[in-house]
Design goal:
The complex is a heterodimer of chains A (550) and B (240).
Chain A: H1 3-15, E1 20-25, H2 28-31, H3 35-48, E2 55-60, E3 72-75, E4 81-84, H4 92-98, E5 108-109, H5 114-117, H6 135-140, H7 145-153, H8 156-166, H9 178-187, E6 194-199, H10 208-215, H11 217-231, E7 235-240, H12 245-260, E8 276-281, H13 291-298, E9 322-326, H14 327-339, H15 341-345, E10 355-362, E11 368-373, H16 378-385, E12 395-400, E13 406-409, H17 419-424, E14 433-438, H18 443-457, H19 463-480, H20 486-502, H21 506-510, H22 513-521, H23 523-527, H24 545-549
Parallel strand pairs in A: 1-2, 6-7, 6-9, 7-8, 10-14
Antiparallel strand pairs in A: 1-3, 3-4, 4-5, 10-11, 12-13, 12-14
Helix pairs in contact in A: 3-4, 7-11, 7-14, 8-9, 8-11, 10-11, 10-12, 11-14, 18-19, 18-22, 19-20
Chain B: E1 3-8, E2 11-16, H1 21-27, E3 51-54, E4 61-62, E5 73-75, H2 79-95, H3 110-117, E6 134-135, E7 141-144, H4 153-162, E8 167-170, E9 177-180, H5 197-201, E10 207-209, H6 222-233
Parallel strand pairs in B: 1-5
Antiparallel strand pairs in B: 1-2, 3-4, 3-5, 6-7, 7-10, 8-9
The chains are: A alpha/beta (550), B alpha+beta (240).
Amino acid sequence: MQLDDLNAIAEKEKAAAKKICLRTCMSAGCMSSRADVIKKNLDAEVKAQGMEAEVEVRRVGCMGFCGQGPLVGVDHDDGREELFEFVKPEDAPAIVSSLKGGPCDVHRGDPKHPFFAKQVKIVRANGGIVDPESIEDYIAVGGYQALHQALTELKPAEVVEAITKSGLRGRGGAGYPTGLKWGTVAKSAGNKKYVVCNGDEGDPGAFMDRSVLESDPHLVLEGMAIAAYAVGADQGFLYVRAEYPLAISRLQIAIKQAKQLGLLGGGIFETPFIFNVDIRIGAGAFVCGEETALMASVEGKRGTPRPRPPFPAESGLWGCPTLINNVETFANIAPIIANGAEWYASFGTEKSKGTKVFALTGKITNNGLIEVPMGIPLRQIVEEMGGGAPDGRQIKSVQTGGPSGGCIPAQHLDTPVDYESLTKLGSIMGSGGMVVMDDTTNMVEIAKFYMEFCMDESCGKCIPCRAGTVQMHNLLDKILKRKATARDLAKLEELCDMVKNTSLCGLGQTAPNPTLSTLRFFRNEYEQLLQPDKFGPRGNGEPKKASVAA
Amino acid sequence: MAAKTLTIDGKPITAEEGATVLQAADEAGIKIPTLCHLDGVYDVGACRLCLVEVTGVAKLLPACTTRVAEGMEVKTDSERLRKYRRITLELLFAERNHVCAVCVANGHCELQTLAYSQGMDHVRYEYLFPKWGVDTTHRLFGMDHNRCVLCTRCVRVCWHVEGAGTKNVAGRGTRSHIITDLAMPWGESDSCTQCGKCVQACPTGALFHKGSTTGEMERDRGKLEFIVTAREKKQWVTAD
């Protein structure tokens, strides 16, 4: 495979394009509403109406507007775009005949809806456009050009330099500068190095990485290959949770296709660069999203975290220097190399560059996936793009960062979405879950929900997380049942502080966050549930100082 | 090997490069409380009792897995550390059924000793009273899960000292528990070499030699008869 071959595939694919393209979303969300049958029916109907010459029915990945699914998009050769929403399998004849001007009462969406119009797509540029099971489709939109560029025009150090300059930060949640991490792995001594893609997305309400893997698996593979070249690795692992079977099967197809074309394996683009990727499937433990636990799991051990240092960059898989990045981070790499670091750095804020994909869920009119530039005000996301709370309700709070994050109250909706601003509010950027809550939501219940999640998902290794989350959960439950006193609340706060500061890994260290942030902004909701303390000094609910301090 | 100079609790000390803060403190006669640490077995940093403050590091660091560094300033004792250690112990006591008075390890228990030394005089958290079983299927040893603190010392000695790999951890969170082979009764294990290292490693009364628990003492009266028969009849057999 050389550049000419790559271009030839792209040209051939473009030449074969038909006048009209019916893009059928076949990501997990739409698939669960029988998108596979819709595609089959559309195929049959195009044939039946004799329109095979001008109409292509294409399987595509996620278009983002998941709440309105199943979705079918129509691209006309004159640039006109149409969108059908809530499509049912029996709508196929009407949709196809509408292409010839026939009547069609299938629910029509607006492709220019603010939900779409306000987005800036880098990671999800091909989502809903290319067939995720066709490498040719990916090559036709410029796929693997960045890998070629990196391998033939740039030295590994120059690739690291480009990523550093782009200002890209880890999209898994913590926001560690990606270039710095790559540089550390590149400079770590060792003959054998690994590149690992963390696809163990598990926050409640988060499905960004699943969508990227299902919609554009080659983008992630290309990013991993560029990363491997930059740090000097020849083996990659894609760690995907078992709950994502569609993502796994599409990755398997993508790896096979890339190997067949010589884009993975030995002598890629006729350079000495070798890179192989294997898939490792998680076994259901949320904690395996933590990098040291993930590595233990890849090695076939029980997935429990270990203290850092040593960091994976220095001693990771089987003691070798290992680069671990999140799916979305890898998905940003090829566009950065292809378009340049300056181009990427032109999006976002001073300290948070580029875009971020969010899964917009909860009490919001428009559910789905969005990709927005960093620094966009939260209000613009939930009110303009998300359409606010349904049923005329008021938005009360937006939860970001899942069980490690916090609840941002409505009065702070004008906060720009970037790493620093969210941290200042006691939440985190996280991996991209954004759960909107309306004024019917009980914040103590929310805190209890997330605590229960952490309690169930604690690996059990360190005491503060294993036993502390249970006690915090029980205290929250006691408050909700109106059996708790101010003394219990003080105990809860003390435990939050202790678990946060003493737990071994990120899971435990951040488990108190949802409780702490709801306590910070919605303390009155807790206090309303408290009972008078019979044993207080005056029986008025005031805790005895001595007993709390003990 | 180069030596490193550091201060622990204001005391200037030297330590070998690669030594842990725990080792350095121990050499200098400074006692840091530990539970999952066991001399001779690698450390996992799980119990969080040995957390110390290091100047310039925002997070608390486990002394057992943190290596000494030149000029490091370590504080092993502070109001905050004492509070965290007490809470850790309280959480452990509330988690399972640690009733000292009826425990085989009473008076020889590291958890009990820690509670005394850290001034943990009562537990403010709700006792969970879980229903864990006792495995007495092994010929020589028993395992009382109710007294287990999940320090995994037994697992580590079994894998890395004995090399048998019999003990392991199953389950998540507070449902974590020590298992034998693939969660089978200990007595049915093929891999167990009956070496007893796990019993020696256990800090509490969770792993014990059979015959040492309350009400288990049996007398071997035949032994007297054997000796008397041997002396009087010059026969080294029992009477019947």
